[in-house]
Amino acid sequence: MVKMVKERIITKADLDSMNFLKEDSLEFDGDITFEENLGRVRIKKSVKLTGYLLIKAGSGIEAGEGIKAGEGIEAGLGIEAGWGIKAGSGIKAGWGIKAGLGIEAGWGIEAGSGIKAGEGIEAGLGIEAGEGIKAGWGIKAGDGIITFRYGGIIAKFISALRIAVGFNITKEQVIKAEIRKGKVILGEVKKV
Fold it and tell me: Which domain covers residue 37, as residue numbers?
């Protein structure tokens, strides 16, 4: 027997003139898809769903509180939450990922630019950022942590298999964190 997954599609008609969702919160038992080219969709409170959150190219999300998906979160632009961001599988953004509290993914976390969390960042697999990674607390990854351009890594501690910062540039980047687990393969470690 095939289980039918419910899907809700967010369109321009669901938004007001300031690009806020007309509802204060977005809760859904199933998958949610944001159409292309909506820009940064703003949600006053939280987003909670049991399935996958897909935000197509030219669209991003900003929630005043948290974003929680039973499966993964993917955005063509950025993902931002006043509180935390949590996904059962992976989190991927064409631009940055930012949370006032923590960011947690069952699989990996990937951002075209930077990743920033007021508290910790945790991924079951790897963490990848085009630019820097900053956490108010620790960064944990089941696999490796890598940044490709400027920004380095700032956290209280890091625990990962391998750590590399500034992979695609010639200027050495800095890791300002205690390395609790893992091997630094690129970057200079400085005490916090």
Answer: 7-101
